[in-house]
Design a protein that fits this description.
Layout lengths: L16 H13 L8 H12 L8 H7 L14 E8 L6 H8 L5 E2 L11 H7 L5 H4 L2 H8 L9 E6 L5 H11 L4 H4 L5 E10 L9 H9 L1 H24 L4 E5 H6 L1 H11 L30 H6 L3 H5 L1 E2 L10 E2 L22 H18 L2
Parallel strand pairs: 1-3, 1-4, 2-3, 4-5
Antiparallel strand pairs: 6-7
Helix pairs in contact: 1-11, 2-11, 10-11, 11-16
Length: 369
């Protein structure tokens, strides 16, 4: 089974790139009106869209590598970790979530019976507006706490749209008073932590939804992939500057270097205990019909059925050896079964290709820690 969003998600149309980029810049720049951290983030965003930021500078990489575990092995009963998983739509968020939910110490929103257990869908379902419009984190937490098992130490919130707004939401979340259900248990604070997962651009054939987008308009999709990678870079830099615990995961490592990813996730979230890379959620217990999550095999088993070179011309790396995975260029690839299988770089101009390379290098470096 491919960990991709089911066919019904095709109703979510891809917006033109110009409009998407303008919205991204508008949302991120609006942070300056909300928080004193806005100037710092605004400068990062400006440098990205002017093409001036070099993600691979030694100073940037060394600074970005300073992250810590998100919780203790035995967590403080007065604190809950709000774990925010930041993954674009159709980029493997369900696969990552199934691994995390293998821990009995993780609470999800799946019991709300909404699409893919996503919080923004829950807010939409209840007619309470989107956090993107209102930034009402108190309302968001009150709504979520009706479905989270609040006795568990880690509360999951999967974010697959408006990724850049996670920065805008971070400070009010960390300062918010816990909702009534948590407060009654003696919980006095929420600690935010983040897992940012990116997907190498040549792995698009693993999603039938994305494959259709590529065939319809490969240039538009290539530019969207670039924008989403840069959003994740900007978000990571901002969160690290605020001292938040952040882990970056490469989707390829989740699927094909599963033992390595298991070690990293367990080190980052020791309060979850051991994770099962072959966990399959049980209907009626872990997932519900409205979640539309039809999963018949675990992540590790799925990876064993798909060859990264055969499907996507992706050369798998060897963790922590300096030999990182990469999408092969046309002149490097051993197979030519499809015109697009060398990655989407051919549909970008020279400047965009440079930005793609820089953003990918930045995230690859972090995912190899």
């Amino acid at each position: 089974l491919k960990f991709s969003v089911p066919r019904s998600s095709e109703s979510v149309a891809r917006r033109p790139m110009a409009r998407t980029s303008i919205c991204f810049v508008f949302f991120v720049l609006s942070i300056s009106a909300f928080s004193g951290n806005g100037r710092h983030l605004r400068n990062i965003v400006r440098s990205v869209h002017n093409g001036h930021t070099s993600w691979n500078s030694d100073a940037e990489i060394d600074y970005a590598f300073n992250f810590s575990a998100a919780c203790e092995v035995v967590p403080d009963n007065k604190t809950r970790v709000m774990l925010r998983v930041i993954v674009p739509n159709n980029h493997g968020s369900t696969a990552l979530e199934t691994v995390l939910m293998s821990s009995p110490k993780l609470a999800t929103l799946c019991s709300s019976d909404v699409w893919q257990c996503e919080g923004h869908k829950l807010l939409d379902k209840q007619g309470r507006g989107s956090v993107a419009d209102e930034l009402d984190v108190g309302l968001m937490l009150k709504t979520y706490s009706q479905y989270w098992d609040v006795e568990r130490p880690v509360l999951l919130d999967k974010k697959t749209r408006w990724l850049s707004l996670a920065a805008k939401e971070d400070e009010p979340l960390s300062m918010a008073r816990p909702p009534r259900g948590l407060f009654a248990l003696g919980v006095r604070s929420l600690q935010t932590a983040y897992v940012i997962m990116y997907k190498p651009v040549c792995l698009w054939p693993l999603s039938h939804v994305v494959a259709r987008y590529v065939k319809i308009d490969p240039t538009n999709h290539a530019r969207r992939e670039l924008m989403e990678l840069e959003e994740q870079v900007v978000l990571h830099k901002f969160l690290v500057s605020q001292g938040r615990p952040v882990l970056v995961v490469n989707y390829a490592d989740l699927v094909w270097n599963s033992h390595f990813t298991k070690q990293r996730l367990e080190a980052f979230l020791p309060c979850l205990g051991p994770l099962d890379m072959d966990f399959v959620p049980k209907p009626g217990k872990d997932i519900y019909p409205g979640n539309n999550m039809k999963i018949s095999s675990g992540v590790k088993s799925y990876g064993e059925t798909v060859d990264p070179m055969e499907c996507c011309n992706y050369e798998l790396g060897i963790p922590r050896t300096g030999q990182r995975g990469k999408c092969l260029r046309d002149d490097e690839r051993p197979n030519d079964k499809a015109d697009f299988l060398g990655g989407l770089q051919l549909f970008l101009n020279t400047g965009e290709r440079t930005r793609l390379s820089q953003a990918t290098l930045y995230l690859d470096s972090l995912a190899d820690l």
